[in-house]
Queue: 2 jobs
Job 1
Amino acid sequence: MKAQSTEFGCGSINHISRRTLLKLGGAAGLMWLTPISQMLARADENAPKGKPARSVIILWMAGGPSQLETFDPHPDSKISFGTKAIKTAAPGVKLAEGFGHLAEVMNDITLVRSVVSKEADHERAVYNMKTGYRPNPTVVHPSIGAVVCHELDDSGMDIPRHISILPDQWPARGGYLGGQYDAFQIFDPKEPIQDVALQAPQERLDQRMKDLSVLEHAFGRGRPANLDANTTLHQIAMSRALKIMSSAQLSAFDVKQAPAAQRAAYGDTPFGRGCLAALRLIETGVRCVEVTLNGWDTHINNHAAQRKNVDMLDPAFAALILDLKARNLFDSTVVLCGGEFGRTPKMNPVGGRDHWPYSFSIAMAGGGLRGGHIHGSSDPTGESKEPEKPVTVQDIHASIQHTLGIQYEKELMTPVGRPLALSDGHLIKELLKA
Amino acid sequence: MKHWVRNAVFLIFWLAATGLVIGSLVKIRPLTDTKAFKESQFTDSELRQVVDRVDEAFASAWKTNGVEPVGGATDLAIARRLSLALTGTIPSLEEIRAIESHSGEQRVQWWLSHLLEDRRYSDYLAERFARVVVGVEDGPFIVYRRHRLVSWLSDQFAHNRPYDELVRDLIASEGIWTTKPEVNFITVTIDQNNKEEGPDEQKLAARVSRAFLGLRIDCVQCHNDFLGGKWKQENFHQLAAFFNRAEMSMTGVRDNAAKEYEYRYLGKPEKQLVTPKVPFNEALLPEEGPLRTRLAAWVTHPDNRPFARAIVNRISALLFNRPLHAPVDQISLDGPFPPGMEILADDLIAHKFDIQRLIRILVATRVFQLDSRTADPGHPTTSAQEAQFASFPLTRLRPEQVGGSILQSAKLKTIDANSHVFVRIMRFFQQNDFLKRYGDMGEDEFAAGGGTIPQRLVMMNGNLVHERTKQDLVMNSATRIGAVAPDDRTAIETAYLTTLTRRPSTEEQIYFVARFKSDPKVKRSELMEDLFWTLLNSTEFSWNH
C-alpha cells in the first residue's frame, strides 16, 4: 500500500503548514490581526532560510563511537583515561586527538554533544537513530534516506537515489514506504558494482527479454491486467534494473576515475573510497548516501580501536567537506556523522567502554546548518547522565528534514491504518544559520 | 599418447557421462516409502468430515460476500506449493516424475506424506519456527546457541511431538543451553551489556504473547492502549512477572523464588511490585508450582483457545504463504475469526496438538487446492477473491525459497539428506551467498510486498543464476537436458518442468520450438542456457501461486 499524505495533517494546531494557513486565511489583509497571522509568522520563522538542501550524506559509525575519543573529549577529566584534545580552526572548539584534518574545517561543522536516546541495544538503537522512531512492533518506520526519496522529486535519475555503501547488517530501509525505498547496497567502491554487469552479450539479453514477454503474457492470463503495477512490481523493477545497467550515471560509483590526489585525500581505505563515491553520487543527483565505518563497538581495548577508526574517518570526512564546498554542493547537502549511541565515561576492566545512550555526540555540516558551533554539553565527570541542552534523536531527524524543506510534521497513512508524522521531533533552531 | 588412445578414452568417458545423464532423466528413483500414507485415511469419514466443515465455512463466507471461487489447481501446481511451503524449494524433476507415476486418487496426500517424512520438512519448519520464537540474530555470545535450538526443534517436528508439549518445554526450560537446547529460548534474551541482569522478562513476555497466543500484548509495554484496545500496561508487565525469577546460575537457567518484579508504570512516581497474573482465562492457571511451569500450563491449556488459534494461523501462513488472519500475530480474543479457524482449532485441541494432522487437513481443503487464477481470461481474478481465499493467494516467495529453487532447478535429482556431501556443502554456501545479495526477510516472513530492483539485478546478472544456468554438462541441468533430449520439444518441456513445475502451454511450446530452430548455427546448449535464464527470471518463478 502506498502511503499517502493527509493534507491537513492530524489537525493539531502545531501541524498546520504555511500553505494550509494561506488556504484557510482568505482575507489576507486582515490576517495580521488574527491568531492565524501569528501562526503564519511562526511558520515563516521556522522555514529554511535560502534554498533548502536536496541531499543527505550519512557517515554511519556502526557500533557506537566513543564521544570522548571523537567529538566530545574531556582531556583534563578522569574520564578521559589519557585521551587528549586538539584545537581546531573554530575558536574554542576542540576535538579528540587524531582529527587533524577535520580540525581544519571545523568552521563548517556543528557538534551536538548532548544527544539522548533510550536505546542501548545495538539493533534497537540503530533503528532508532536511522528512522527517528523507537522500534514498534506494529510498524516498520522508514530511514531518513527513504523519507527524503519519498518526499523529494526523482527527475533525471536512472540509478537508485538511496544508496548504502559498505552496509552492515542493518542498512537503511524503506519501512512502511515500501521496499522500493530500501537503500541500494554496494561494497568497497574499488570493486565493480555487483550484479549490474551483463552476463551475456546485449543482443542475447534483448532476445531473452523478448522470450520473457511470452512467459509473462502466459502468467498474466486469468489474472488482473494491473497485476504487475499493483502487486508483483516484477516487470517494473526489471525495467528499472535494465535502465540502471545501461546508465552512464553508473560511472559515479567508479572512484578510480577520480584524480589520484583526490583519492589520496580521502585515504586508501574502503571507508575513504566510500566517502569519495558518496561525493560523486551526490554530484550525479542521488538523494541520500549512507557510508558505514564499522568497528566502533569497543568493549575491549577502547582507545586503540577508536583511534584506528578515527584515523580512517578523519581524512575522509574532512576531504568530503572540502570537496562539497569546492563543487558548490555544501549548502545543498546535509552531512551527518554519528552512530547508534556513545560509550560509557567509565572504563571496564578490560580497557573497554560499554554502551552509553545518555549524552553522546554527532557532527553535522552543510545544508544551511551553522559551522564552528557546539550545541549542548555532557558532564565532564561522567557522573550525570543528563547533558545540558539535551537533544533527542527525533529532534535531529526533524531538523534534518527541515533543512531539506520537508514538513516533518506531515503525516502519512501507514499500512496499519494509523497516520504517522514523518518525524515527531522538534526543530533545533540553534543549529540553523542565522 | 597416441591419438586413437586419447580419442578412445574420451569416448568412454563421454559415453559414461551421457549414460548417467540419460539414466537420471529416464529412470525414476523409487522415492522412500511413505510409511504414513494410507489411501483410506483420506477417505474415511472422521478426517473427511473436518475437511468438509472447513470447506463449508469458506463456501458460506464466499456466498455471504458474493464471491465466486475459481476452479481447482493442477496436482503439479499443488505439489509445487507444498514443496515450497515444507522444504523451501520447488520439486525436483525426479520428484515430479514420481508424483506423476502415482496413480491413486490421493496423489496430493501421497506427496504430502512423502514430504512429512523427509528430513527437509522438519529442518525447514524448525528454522521458520525459530524465527518466531528467537528471531534471526546471533544473540548473546557464549550463553546462546541458536543452531542447537533449531536442531532440537527439527527433532521435535520430525517426530511430530505434540505442539503443546514442545511449547511447555520452551517456556519452563531450565539448565544449560548446550545440553538442554530449549533453554536457548530463555537465554537469547540476555543482554550481556547489563551484566547484573539475567534473562529479559519483557522480551520473553512479548515472545510468548506473539508467538504462542497470537496477541500483541507487548504493544502496551510502555503505555495503555490508546487506540481503544482492551489491554492495559499492567497486563503486559503482569505477564512479564512470570519470567522475572529466571536467572543464570552455575547450572544454567534456574528460577530464583526470592526475586520480585518491580516496574514503574507510566505516570506513576515510583516503581511498584508487580504480581504475576495472566491477562485472561485466569481460571486455567494452575495454583501451584514454579511460575514458568504454571505459565506454560496456562498458555498450552486446551481451553486456552488463543494458543490453538495462533498455531493454526501460523501453519496456514506457512502453507498459503499468507496467514488466514493478518497480521499473523494479532488475532482478536473475541473474534470474528476467519472461516475455518475455529473448526481447525477444535480439531487440533481434540487431537493433542498434532501438527502433521493440521497440515493434512489444510492441504485437503478445497481452499488450498484452488487455482490462483481463473480459467477465463475475460474474467480475471479479483482482489475480493484473493482477499477471501476464493483464489489461491499470489504471494512473493521468500528469499530462501527463491535461492533454494534456483539451486534445485540446476539438478535433476533431489538435493536432500541423501545427496552427496559435496552437493550439500555447495548448496549451503551458494544459498548463503545468494541470500546476502537478494536479502533476508528476518522475522517478518509474511510481509506483503513486490519485487525490488536489487532482487531483479541479482536474478538477471548475479552469480548464482549465471553459474547454475551456464553451459556446464556436469553441474547444470540446463546443459544436461539439452544434451540428451531427443528433440527441442522434449528439451523445452523438461526445462519448464524443472523450473516452473509445469509443462509449457501450446502457445509457449510453439514459440520456443520456433526460437530453437530460428538460427541453426546456435548450439542447443546455448539456447537452453537462455531458456533457463528466462524461466528463472519470470514472475512465475519468484511468486507462489
Job 2
Amino acid sequence: MWLLTLSVAGVRADTLIADLSNRFIAITTGFSGTDLLVFGAIDVPGDIVVIVQGPPTDVVVRRKERIAGFWVNRANVTFKNIPSFYAIAASKPIEDILAPEIQQQLNIGLEYLPMKTDVTLTPSETKEFREALIVNKRLQQLYYSNILRVNFMGRELFRTNISFPSNVPTGDYLLDIMLVRDKNVVSAQQTPLSVTKTGFGAEIYDFAHQNALLYGLAAIVLGLFGGWAGYVFFRRR
Amino acid sequence: MVQIYLPIAELSVDVFVLLILGWFVGFISGISGIGASFLMTPTLIFLGIPSPVAVASQANQVVATSISGTLAQWSRGNIDFKMGGILLLGGLAGSSFGVWLFGFLARIGQGDLVVAISYIMCLGWIGLLMLWESLRSVFKKLQASAKVKIPFYQRAWVQGLPFKRNFPRSNLYISLWLPIVIGFGVGVLSAIMGVGGSFLLVPAMIYLLGMPVTVVVGTSLFQMVFVTANVTLQQAIQNNSVDILLALILMISGVAGTQWGTKMSGKVRGEYVRFVFALLMLGVCVGLINEFLVEPSSVYSIRTVGELR
C-alpha cells in the first residue's frame, strides 16, 4: 500500500534527488521528540510535496454515551491499517499545485486517506468516527494540523523540517518526496526511515515483551531489594 | 525540568514530578500508618500514563514499601504469620483473578471505568467511615454514642462456619473461610486499583476478623508483600504493563517519604491525621465521580489495537 503508482507517462526519476538528515530516529531515555531535515534538488522547475507515514496500525475509536448520568464508553469502530503517523509538507498550498483527482489517486492529505472500518457504517457515522480519529490523532500530535512548509533556496535546492513528538510510534516509516508540475506529480522518490527505541529503555522494553516471566521476577527482586535497602539505610540513622 | 522517557508507558514525564509524588504518598503513608497508594494511581493517570501501566508499576512500587514495613514490624514481633499465610491464600487467588479481569476489561475499553468505580466505592466508603470515626474521637463522644452491638466475628452464623482453626498469635479461634474470602476480595481490588490494599485490609482485620490492633499492621504488610509481588508478576506476564523505571523512581522517593512520615507520626495526634487522611480519600473520590458526571470535552477516544492504551 506504500507504493505510489505513478500513471504519468515519461517520468524521469533523475529530475529529483532527495535525502534525509538521518535515516534512523533513536528513542533514548532522554528522548523528548526530534526534528528531521528532508532536503534535495530538482533540475527542472516545479513544486515539492513531502509525505511522511508511520507504520500501519489498527485503531479503535470509542464513543462515550451518558448512561444513568455517567459518561461511559459505548459504541466502537475499528479502522484497519491506518498510518500511525502522518505529516505533509509542501512548497505551496496543496490545492494550488495538485488537482483533487491526483490527490485522491495518490492518497495525498488526510481527507484522501483510505480508512476502512471493520463494520459497515452509514456514511454519516463513517464521517463522524473518521473525524474523531483524526481529531484525536492530532491531539496526540501524530497527525498534522498544518501543512509544513518546503523552502526553496534558489530554484533547485529545497529543504523542510518534520517534527516528531516524544510519543512517536516505533517502526518503519516511509517518506514520499514528489516533484509537482502542472497540477500533476512528474517525479517521485521513496525513502525509508526507521524509528526505534535504543539504549537502556529499548532493552527494558524488549526484555518486558520477549521474556515476560523473567522480567516480572526481576521487577519483584528490584522491589524487594529496594525496600530492604531503604529499611537498612533508615534504621541506621 | 528533567524529562525521562518511560520505556513501557512510552512517553516522557518530568522526573521531579514523579519524585515529589512518590515522596508525598510515602509521607502520608508513614504519618498515618495506612498505605496512601490510592493517591498515586489517579495522579499517574492524570499525568498521561496509561491506566494499565500506572496500576501495574504502582503494584511493583508497593512491593518495596511493604517489605520495608514488614521488616520493621517483624523486628518488633508484630506479625501473625499463620493468619498472614491464610489471608495470602485468598490474596494470591484474588489478585491473579483481578489481573486477568483487568486485562480483559482494558481490552474491551472499560479499564478506566472499572478502575474509577473501584476507587469511588472504596474511597467513598472507607473515607466516610474514617471521617466519622476521627470526628467522634476529636469531640470525645465515643462513649456516649457507642451502642452495644454484636461484632461481626461474634455473630452466630460466623461462629458456625466450618474449618475452624486456632490462631495463637491473634488469640482467635475462627473458620479458615473468613480470612480466605477477605484475602480474595482485597486481592481482586488490589490488582484492579494497583494498591497494596491495606486501607481495606486493616479495617477488615479489625472489624470482621476481630484481630488485636497490635498485629494488624504487621500482618497486613506481610501478606501485601506477596500479593503485590504476585500482581507485579501477573501484570508483567499477562499485560506487559510493568514499567520498571517508573516503579524505581516512585520506590526511591516513596521509601524516603515513608521514613520521614513515620518519624513525624509520633508528633501529631492520630485522629487529626486520620481526619486529614479521610478528607484526602473523599477528595479523590469526589474528583473521580465528577469526571464521570461532567460531559467530556470530547466523547471520542482512540486506542491502537495491541496496545493497552
